[in-house]
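From the thread on structure requests for the teaching lab: each student submitted one protein with a one-line request. Submission from student K.M.:

"Model AtuA-like ferredoxin-fold domain-containing protein from Massilia eurypsychrophila, tokens only."
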Amino acid sequence: MLLREIAHSRAGDKGNISNISVIAYRPADYRLLEKHVTAERVKAHFAELVQGEVLRFELPALGALNFVLHNALTGGVTRSLALDAHGKTLSSAILSLEIPEQ
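Reply posted by the TA:
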């Protein structure tokens, strides 16, 4: 299934770092996020964009994961020639990640 079926996402950027949160719609689905949405999978999903480290922070009380993607925005909003490939668009892109249903 696609991640968007069980979660929504918010994102932002600061300089060359993107911050993406993935939040389960239902508390019961947090375990699927925790198990299948790893820093390694997120880095692979954004392989063409993320040149640095991807860190994952767990927020179980919120049913959310937060990812910090370093060197992910081709220099940052003010330095990049890419049109709209910045933090907020990545929140939509992460939701196309495929995860198992269990």
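TA comment: The helical segments are 30-36, 39-45, 87-94. The mean pLDDT is 86.
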